[in-house]
Design brief:
It is a single chain. Helix 3 packs parallel to helix 5 and helix 4 runs antiparallel to helix 7. The protein has helices at about 5, 10-20, 25-50, 55-70, 80-105, 115-140, 150-170; strands spanning about 140, 145-150. Strands 1-2 form a two-stranded antiparallel sheet. With about 180 residues, it is mostly helical. Strand 1 and strand 2 form a beta hairpin. It has seven helices and two strands, in the order H-H-H-H-H-H-E-E-H. It has a single domain, classed as Up-down Bundle (Growth Hormone, Chain: A), CATH 1.20.1250.
Length: about 180
């Protein structure tokens, strides 16, 4: 979440200010990205079940780094190219959440999952806010009216994604034997 939400809050302003999108074109980014995740997330979930949550999480984090890199480097770019990059950003950004959520959920005994997931959601929201805050400290608006240092936010997001791979490997599956219906 830290990786993803350092980039997300600045997509719209960056694309309208630096890339040349109009406010009315921004909706296509979210429409296409959201529509594709409806199909890609269940597929990624099946892949996580088939090949393992850790492998699929690692794969999606690494692949998600590609659109993060390009998205945060864009200058004036044709709308079609931007839509491809942002669609991949949303597909793999959401895609990495599927195996990570499955892995985190399985790390807690079933009788403790409700309270754990509530705490997890609160930490996730706090992390989103901290990530956006830190990105806001990095990004500046120059005398030219353009956003600067978004590329640094992209590098930061990629680095945090890689760190999350190592952290995810420390998560162990809980013993479900003590669960009573």
């Amino acid at each position: 979440m830290f990786s993803h939400f350092s980039v997300v809050p600045f997509i719209s302003p960056y694309l309208t200010t630096n890339v040349g999108f109009t406010d009315s074109q921004i909706k296509y980014i979210y429409l296409i990205g959201g529509a594709l995740t409806v199909f890609s997330s269940p597929f990624i979930g099946k892949m996580a079940d088939k090949y393992g949550r850790s492998k699929v999480f690692t794969f999606t984090v690494i692949i998600a780094s590609v659109p993060v890199f390009f998205l945060t480097q864009l200058g004036e770019t044709p709308i079609g190219c931007v839509l491809v990059v942002t669609a991949l950003f949303f597909v793999f950004g959401a895609g990495r959440m599927v195996p990570s959520t499955a892995k985190v959920t399985s790390s807690v005994k079933p009788q403790n999952r409700g309270s754990f997931m509530s705490f997890n959601a609160a930490v996730r929201q706090m992390t989103n806010g901290v990530a956006a805050f830190l990105a806001g400290l990095i990004i500046t608006i120059g005398d030219d009216g353009l956003y600067h240092n978004y590329a640094l936010v992209g590098y930061f997001a990629i680095a945090m994604g890689i760190v999350s791979i190592f952290i995810s490997r420390k998560i162990k599956v809980a013993d479900d034997a003590s669960f009573v219906n």
